[in-house]
Amino acid sequence: NLLRVPPPQELLQPLAVPERLLLGPGPSNVPPRILAAGGRQLLGHMHPEVLQVMDEIKVGIQYAFQTQNRLTLAISGTGHCAMEAALLNLLEHSDTVLVAVNGIWGQRAVDIARRLGADVHELLKPPGEYFTPRDIEEGLAQHKPSVLFITHGESSTGVLQPLEGLGKLCHRHGCLLLVDAVASLGGAPIFMDHQEIDVLYSGSQKVLNAPPGSAPISFSERAREKMLRRKTKPLSFYLDVAWLANYWGCDGEPRRYHHTAPINTFFSLREGLAMLSEMVSGTRQAAGHRHQELLPTITTVRVPEGYNWKEITAFLMDNHAIEIAGGLGPSAGKVLRIGLMGCNSTSSNVDRVLRALRDALSRCHRSRL
Ligand code: GLV
């Protein structure tokens, strides 16, 4: 008998997936319409109906980003993969990049850009703060980067970065503006063309309420020109935007096979974008009343004095089937993060999580200080 590894007993049991309310920083719950889309029968990745769905995703992203960029598509990967794709297509070895770091996403961008051999400069702010146009202008003048990376919704601290004027500023300094909107898209207004953002990306698993695994991204004409001027090919074949642009029908050429797309994931993303298109006017109105520098999708609160954050999050999970998160990166151990995204953003969910938190505070251990 050559089967030295027996069939695993675990896999002979049915799949177990409990019901949970996902009020962390993402993923958020997936509504039935989007779940059903992902459960549809497969088609081939070059079938005309799939290419049609991809075209629909593209116009959905153009709407969500408020852009007319031709080079707009979804990466076959998570929002983090889109960060990697953006940096590795924009940057060549020795290119100068300035990264605005006020939380984990700037830190990650620094790490990725260094791996690419770029000349990386960090513009630092304490976690919880945002960058003013003046901070940015000083950084641009000092380092003369060809790309500035900044995070719109810093999910580790709950800060929303004001973007007004930054695109113009970058362009005056001959620099491209790259914005991470993974945690903010659909929850806070963003206007890619009007704000002169050159590269913008997001994820599927937050406000769009689709499963993780596809990531909207768009490139301005300026960004496209920089990529066309590259002397060397991007370091990844899978994430090479020239190939992806062709597969997504953005370059006017017949579409060629590049990789086998996660087709069902695209079906879900299509439905997430469709639902956003149906309801976004309400969101934009509501967003007008928020405090300007608070990320509306993720509420970040200090862990109450004397409590252990892990005990609180575990209590909510075990007793209320609600996920909320602790801190991340610079906010680790210090905060609780409560996400309200897309279909999860209802007043009944707010009531439910507040009730659960009250219960946790009265029943979790409180150390005597
Ligand atoms: C992930 O996106 C997080 O903020 O935890």
TrEMBL record:
Residues 42-289 form the Aminotransferase class V domain. Its EC number is 2.6.1.44, 2.6.1.51. Keywords: Aminotransferase, Pyridoxal phosphate, Transferase. It is an enzyme of class 2 (transferase). Its cofactor is pyridoxal 5'-phosphate. The keyword RNA-binding does not apply. GO terms for cellular component: peroxisome. Homodimer. CDD domains: AGAT_like. One of its GO terms (molecular function) is alanine-glyoxylate transaminase activity. This is Alanine--glyoxylate aminotransferase. SUPFAM superfamilies: PLP-dependent transferases (SSF53383). Substrate binds at R337. It comes from Athene cunicularia. Belongs to the class-V pyridoxal-phosphate-dependent aminotransferase family. The modification N6-(pyridoxal phosphate)lysine is found at K206. The gene is AGXT. Pfam families: Aminotran_5. It catalyses: glyoxylate + L-alanine = glycine + pyruvate; L-serine + pyruvate = 3-hydroxypyruvate + L-alanine. PANTHER family: ALANINE--GLYOXYLATE AMINOTRANSFERASE (PTHR21152:SF40), AMINOTRANSFERASE CLASS V (PTHR21152). InterPro entries: Aminotrans_V_dom, Aminotrans_V_PyrdxlP_BS, PyrdxlP-dep_Trfase, PyrdxlP-dep_Trfase_major, PyrdxlP-dep_Trfase_small, SP_NH2Trfase/AEP_transaminase. One of its GO terms (biological process) is glycine biosynthetic process, by transamination of glyoxylate.
